[in-house]
Write a structure and sequence with these properties.
about 10% strand, alpha/beta, about 50% helix, globular, about 600 residues, Rossmann fold, two-stranded parallel ribbon, seven-stranded parallel beta sheet
Length: about 600
């Protein structure tokens, strides 16, 4: 004991203290009797009886925190939930976007995982790690979902809202959380008859595609009920002090403008939905987590205020604050408003810019989605803050719009973008065609496609070439997914240094990268209905690779003591492959010197 020096090592102190405590609990194999704590600690160094540094207690507390998995962690509600729970729980955050791109600050209790919940392998890997480490999952908060206001049956309703949900539930059979918390919506229900309200007993019988996906999601939770206890949360229309709810944003932008329709309200202005501030929404989820053990096996909860707020009420409050007095609206009868919406949409189609209002919305004019959340509020002991009521907050929204129009526009335009971002579409396509791209790319390097091989790559051992092919494709995919060209550029600098030491010519390394670009574009352009444009492919693949080629040239020039590498290999010469697929490259000599294959 006297030679065990660890005064500066708090972790060693913890281990030794645990060992001493254990010896007081169990009889030793030789002594046959339990030694007293006093006898054991009499000869212990003073450092073991002194208080531990505060950081050690913090680390120990972190280890004992309950674990929560949150999908859709970068979303409008997900970000707030992370911020609210991070001091009380260890959080596994899952999202398509990276943590820096999501604007979620680093925190020791947040473990960020960037992948698609439809990626079964990635999801299984994370859950297996949790299971292997012996961590007990307290809850899973499933916020990942697709929605839009087009009224069209987008494939993502099936893929993300249903296939992704099933993937999560399958993993929960292994993790066995206390509660699977599913974000549904009051919009999943049909509007109630006049004078009635939606309660927790109301069926999810809405007819539009989003409602249909939520109905089927709720049915799926009941299917898994024996293995996974769940809470179905039907949220009201959620907004913040920056708005960030597309219909409300469009209303305010129209009503507070000089446009011809700034005073027009459809029908009697009685169209109404309940609203919930995002802060109340985050607090609601915290309450559900805290009550996870007390709820029924499958429970439906309404996360909403009681009642509904009409367009007329919103119009009066908004114009009163903005203009100093409420403006008088012009009411367009429902039998005229419906055809008017259809006509505007048809004109927008012709002009290439459709309005936000779509024909499917016309049938809801003057209908009220009235909610009664009193049972939920009593069950959870939760109440929405009166201060955060939508009619109380509209002046705050307008003030933010007036004082910081750039941030107002940025936040709301981001909320309006409901389609999958081009980089994520390309990432998914690359992921789906990874094996095909690898085979074609490797074939070019070794000359299997009828072209001159790159001799240095041909001389590499087969396993090394396979590994190089896999790693560089994955690095490109990571760059595309994160919208960070620097990821591939940094990797290519390391590759260039290695290849230079191995005796590769700069032109060979640059040509290999150009060939990768060629193969990726060739494969992705031949996918029907991919949803990506030639410009998208150029922005995220060609430009990323050609910038990486520049890094290769720079490293070779440095290592070869200033010798100019591949003087004819230029960025602009690479663009022909994306934009001029049926033409020859700018110079035949350039292509032949680089050993890049021509298109058949």
């Amino acid at each position: 004991m006297q030679h065990f020096r660890h005064e500066g090592d708090p972790i060693a102190n913890i281990i030794l203290r645990s060992s001493l405590w254990a010896r007081t609990q169990d009889p030793g194999p030789r002594e046959g009797a339990r030694p007293s704590p006093t006898a054991l600690t009499a000869s212990v160094p003073q450092c073991l009886t002194a208080p531990l540094p505060p950081i050690v207690y913090i680390c120990l507390a972190m280890e004992s925190l309950p674990l929560i998995v949150i999908s859709g962690a970068s979303g409008f509600l997900g970000r707030r939930v992370l911020d609210l729970l991070k001091s009380q729980y260890k959080l596994i955050a899952i999202d398509l976007r990276s943590q820096p791109e999501s604007g979620v600050p680093k925190h020791p209790n947040i473990s960020w995982h960037q992948f698609d919940i439809c990626n079964e392998d990635a999801l299984e890997a994370v859950c297996n790690d949790v299971h292997t480490n012996g961590d007990k999952i307290h809850s899973v908060i499933h916020l990942a979902a697709y929605y839009d206001f087009t009224g069209e049956n987008h494939p993502e309703y099936q893929r993300t809202n249903l296939d992704g949900l099933r993937n999560m539930l399958e993993q929960c059979r292994l993790l066995k959380p206390k509660r699977f918390i599913f974000a549904s919506s009051l919009a999943a229900c049909e509007f109630p008859p006049p004078g009635q309200a939606l309660t927790e007993e109301s069926p999810p019988d809405g007819q539009h595609p989003y409602a249909e996906s939520k109905r089927r999601g709720e049915e799926m939770l009941r299917e898994y009920a024996d293995d996974v206890p769940s809470a179905i949360i039907r949220f009201a229309a959620m907004y913040s002090d920056w708005c960030e709810y597309p219909p409300l944003f469009v209303f305010l932008e129209t009503w507070l403008s000089n446009q011809w329709n700034s005073r027009i309200l459809g029908g009697k202005g009685d169209s109404a939905v309940p609203y919930l501030h995002v802060r109340d929404g985050a607090n609601f989820l915290r309450k559900v987590v805290e009550k996870a053990d007390e709820l029924e096996r499958v429970v439906v909860l309404n996360a909403s205020t009681n009642g509904a707020v009409t367009h007329q009420q919103l119009f009066e409050v908004a114009t009163s604050y903005y203009y100093g007095q409420a403006r008088k609206p012009i009411h367009i009868p429902k039998f005229l408003a419906g055809p008017g919406v259809v006509a505007r949409d048809a004109l927008g189609r012709l002009l290439g810019k459709r309005p936000f209002e779509r024909p499917w919305m016309a049938k809801f004019i003057d209908l009220r989605l009235t909610a009664d959340a009193s049972h939920t509020q009593e069950l959870l002991g939760w109440q929405p803050h009166p201060r955060l009521d939508i009619l109380q907050r509209v002046p705050f929204l307008i003030e933010n719009m007036k004082t910081d129009p750039v941030e107002w526009s940025r936040r709301n335009q981001e909320a309006m973008v409901v389609t999958l971002r081009p980089n994520l579409r390309i990432y998914r396509l690359l992921e789906a065609r990874e094996d095909e791209i690898a085979v074609l790319f490797k074939g070019i390097l070794v000359g299997e496609r009828g072209q001159n091989p790159l001799s240095s790559y041909q001389a590499l051992p087969a396993d090394e070439l396979d590994w190089h092919t896999k790693v560089i494709i994955h690095t490109l995919m990571t760059s595309v997914r994160n919208r960070q060209k620097g990821i591939l550029m940094a990797y290519c600098r390391d590759v260039a240094e290695l290849r230079c030491q191995q005796g590769f010519a700069c032109e060979e390394v640059a040509s290999a990268l150009a060939a990768l670009n060629h193969v990726c574009i060739e494969v992705l352009e031949n996918i029907p209905d991919s949803g990506v444009t030639g410009k998208d492919l150029n922005d995220y693949i060609t430009t990323t690779i050609t910038f990486s080629i520049d890094q290769v040239q720079e490293i070779f020039e440095y290592l070869q003591e200033g010798e100019v590498a591949a003087p004819s290999f230029r960025y602009q010469d690479q663009l022909w492959r994306t934009h001029h697929r049926d033409t020859t490259p700018p110079t035949r000599e350039l292509e032949q010197s680089e050993n890049i294959p021509t298109r058949d």
